[in-house]
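Deviation from plan, reported transparently: CU-O-CU linkage complex.
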Amino acid sequence: MAGCASQLPGFGDDADGSAVTPRPTVTGDADTTVSLTASDGAIRPATDQSTTTWLYEGQFPGPELRVQEGDVLSVELNNDLDAETTIHWHGVPVPNSVDGVPEVTQEPVASSDSFTYTFRAEPAGTYFYHSHVGLQLDRGLLGPLVVEERDPHVEYDYDYVVVFDDYLPGEPTLPSDEGAGGGGMGGGGMGGGMMGDVRPPYEGLLVNGQLPEDPPTFDVTEGDRVRFRFVNASSATVFGVRITGHELNVTHADGRPVDPVAVDSFAFGAGERYDAVVEATNPGSWFVQADALDGDEPPARAVLTYDQLDGVRNPETPSSSGTRLRYEDLRAVTPLDGVDGTPDRTFDLTLSRGRGQSYTWTIDGQAYPDADPLRIHPDEHVRIHMENQSPVVHPMHLHGHFFRVGDAIKDTVMVPGHMGEVTLDFRADNPGRWLFHCHNLYHLDAGMARVIEYVE
Ligand code: C2O
Ligand code: CU
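Because the crystal trials were delayed, the predicted structure below was used instead.
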């Protein structure tokens, strides 16, 4: 598989002929072999609602993949869709050839074709996988990936994976596809206009594929320490998350261990993950709730229930007070190697809405794919500084690497609107061509991406 990548147009055949060979992926026997078939199928987000969408293994979210840190995972993607597709392993620093980005790391997998992704699952963490073709992520092609640590830095009894998503029945489209002032996204009235943004016509917010009318339940026993693995798998939503009656001890940011921080809530953008350990010391029935900070849909809700409850109680509605996690609160347990001191290379990038008629989002005025790659050399300490000249948040995601932001180690970071600034640092230790992009899927599809390319 690694061999095929160098045949791709644009891959490894730079004008200056100086691309760096990516590290090969593992060969040999896998510890876990899975097959994921992408196909049409029906989902039922509430008892009285059903819609046909695109799914892995007929499930939404797709099947939970769970492996031990260091295990070799082999996933065969079978494409039963009527369209090309790929799978990207969001957050996992895989070898370049299995990163799943069409035209950058592989040719997209044609209808009726298949492709096998094999890689060593490390480091441990809470991740997810999703299609990286067009707007397919907002059609349901996503699922959680848990890599369990052999030696966790916090104690807990068991865990639940909690996947938040925005619910879009039907086919996602970019506003520009609708024509100026048309329906669809453009008609939503969610702060459109030149500089602002429009929000897709979401019909609700989901926890593990369920609307609040039909919430999933997490059962606990008094005295348990329960680890929640929260994933923001949405395409265009910043969620504010809380559990009524309980503190969240945030233990991992984007899968990486942090010194535990106790908060009442946290906010996260598309592509971010937080793990929190909750002590079940307050018997009752409680909401696990996620509000859209940039939308007006009713909050996504699950119910946390203690099993020794006598009789059914109505869960308590959260108040919006209390402490909220800030990035400054996050302190990685082990610092990221090789990013101390002065960087070898710095990129200063502006994030903004494209000028003109069409719906575009740009990095330094360029809309991908008509955008220059950002070139780096192996082993450099690279710094990216971003300034957001638009009024909306951009959750920026780097493929193939973790980065340091403040004292945290992450792979996705929100750059706040209205001249918000973020600086991230990483070590160039995974040669290849890697996408760096906004994880708002509509911004990505409208150009807010660059390829980071290793050259000698
Ligand atoms: Cu979740 Cu480019 O990725
Ligand atoms: Cu964005």
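Residues 72 and 120 are 4 Å apart (CA to CA). We consider this an acceptable substitute for the interim report.
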